[in-house]
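B., you asked whether I could sanity-check this one before it goes into the benchmark set. Here's the sequence:
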Amino acid sequence: QVQLVESGGGLVQAGGSLRLSCAASGRTSSNYAMAWFRQAPGKEREFVAAISWNRSTYYADSVKGRFTISRDNGKNAVYLQMNSLKPEDTAVYYCAARYGSGLYFVYDYWGQGTQVTVSS
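And here's what the prediction gave me:
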């Protein structure tokens, strides 16, 4: 199993930037994909970005060109650099992981979430 802990959330003004981090622990010796999801109040959880073990990436249209997902396999960490933030990006952001070498939309392991609030 993989345990995930997010950090880096906070309050930022529209147009600003934040960088989220997620540290993985547990059985991290096997290849695993990682992703970020978010859930705004009253809405369902939605996919944001994913990165494969060999660093292929995929983004939701709503964040393409503004967010960048990256990972450091040596540190068992994944990051989400968020630029040009908008009030509609306000949500709890979750880190997710699953074993495998591809890109996925369904994940098995989840962090506890970190709040991102963008003020207008």
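One thing to flag: Residues 20 and 112 are 13 Å apart (CA to CA). Otherwise nothing jumped out at me.
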